[in-house]
Write a sequence for this structure.
């Protein structure tokens, strides 16, 4: 049985680690206030960075930055007042994806990122069609028995230093990428995942835009 990183489909894949910071207005879905992404490919026996992106995002008037948001992220309303709009920031990120290139998004608790992307899909239609990998089920499979699988717990397990600006999107992308690479190494060493299909079976999450719409009972 070959290792995960020997699989041609795995080597052909570009993995884009992504993270959003958000504000959560009452009665509305979470609104992005920052996004960061890092593209990685496994080639030549190691990992290569294929690009990075980071941007603040100006939230709509109905979703102002709250003191709790500032306490969590350090971002203030003043910092975001002149930030790009969601259409500008996410549109710019969307254009980084190359037609015909296979991608998978990688995120810690990927459902959160999937929901933000889906709700912003008009601004990033290409990104919204990219399926995801969730580091949480992958970690559960490869390192059973942890007290929980929060990002901070995984950082401690792998002796990865917490960044000073934890809960900023770019810092969280950096440490999530480190966790993902450690998990891939574990998968290789254990032989428990032999190819990309096995990885997707355990940790894959279908983008909401790719989920088939179930017709109504009386649709003709």
């Amino acid at each position: 049985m070959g290792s995960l990183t020997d699989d041609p489909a795995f080597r052909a894949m570009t993995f884009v680690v992504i993270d959003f910071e958000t504000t959560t207005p009452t009665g509305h879905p979470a609104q992005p206030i920052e996004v960061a992404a890092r593209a990685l490919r496994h080639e030549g026996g190691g990992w290569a960075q294929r690009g990075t992106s980071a941007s603040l995002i100006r939230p709509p008037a109905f979703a102002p930055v709250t003191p709790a948001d500032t306490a969590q992220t350090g971002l203030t309303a003043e910092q975001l007042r002149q930030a790009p709009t969601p259409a500008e920031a996410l549109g710019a990120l969307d254009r980084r994806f190359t037609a015909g290139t296979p991608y998978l998004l990688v995120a810690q608790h990927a459902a959160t990122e999937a929901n933000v992307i889906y709700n912003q899909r008009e601004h990033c239609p290409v990104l919204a069609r990219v399926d995801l990998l969730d580091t949480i089920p992958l970690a559960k499979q490869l390192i059973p028995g942890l007290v929980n699988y929060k990002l901070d717990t995984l950082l401690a397990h792998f002796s990865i230093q917490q960044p000073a600006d934890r809960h900023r999107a770019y810092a969280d992308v950096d440490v999530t990428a480190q966790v993902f690479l450690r998990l891939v190494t574990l998968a290789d060493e254990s032989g428990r995942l032999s190819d990309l299909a096995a990885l997707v079976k355990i940790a894959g999450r279908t983008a909401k835009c790719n989920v088939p719409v179930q017709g109504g009972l009386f649709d003709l």
Notes: The beta strands are 14-23, 31-43, 46-56, 103-107, 132-134, 204-205. The two ends are 48 Å apart (CA to CA).
